[in-house]
Fold this sequence. Notes:
The chain is mostly helical.
Amino acid sequence: MLKIRGAISKQSYTTLSIMAFCFVFLVWIFLSSFRLVNAVFLPSPLNVLSYFVDAMQDGSLLPNIMISCQRILFGVFFAVVVGFPVGILCGTFKGAEAVIRPLCEFVRYLPVPAFVPLVMVWAGIGESAKILLLFIGILFQLILMIADDVTSVSDDLLNAGYTLGATRRQTITKILIPAMLPRCMDTLRMMIGWAWTYLVVAEMVAANSGLGYSIMKAQRFLKTDAIFVGILVIGLLGLFTDRFLYFLSKELFHWVEGK
């Protein structure tokens, strides 16, 4: 188990993962039960669970979950539609890389919250503004990572295609893209993870719904149980989407080593 990159059984891996979650949960129970942290700042798990059940029953939580999922879906979709072909272009041709990569390297370090005033000017305060913020937060990272996925494809595969008489178009569509798709799925998992973290920022733009909005609203009234519910629900939704893409990747690319 202590060997560098040593393999462990799937059962051991699952057990250790569950133990890690249980440890964090037990620390939370310990701190809240013995009042080591003020309940205003750290509500008990029971209070958080009670608020979650009440919010689901009175219908205040589920609509916020649905609207946040919709914003994530559209933000990621448009980023993939633009970023995937641009990333392939950047990773395939050095001339395109010289144009695209330096610009993306610069823009990706710009803080997404700083775009909030500009987005409100460009797109108003409606749904398009929130989707645009998610789009900006994901796009430039996605382009660079897709380009890296392309460059990770072995030159031996490309040379084999040339030897068999493949044209440039065939090399890209029949060799390069299929070979990079498994890594592309892993990239997409990371991008969706970032999208969930940008959600709260996106829902700062004059929102009146969504999980990020409910967290910001609860913060104004120091309702930390509501804040915890919002954070945990976002975390669970992010984990669900990640696991879904992971198992989808295993089904689609079962021939890849380690899948």
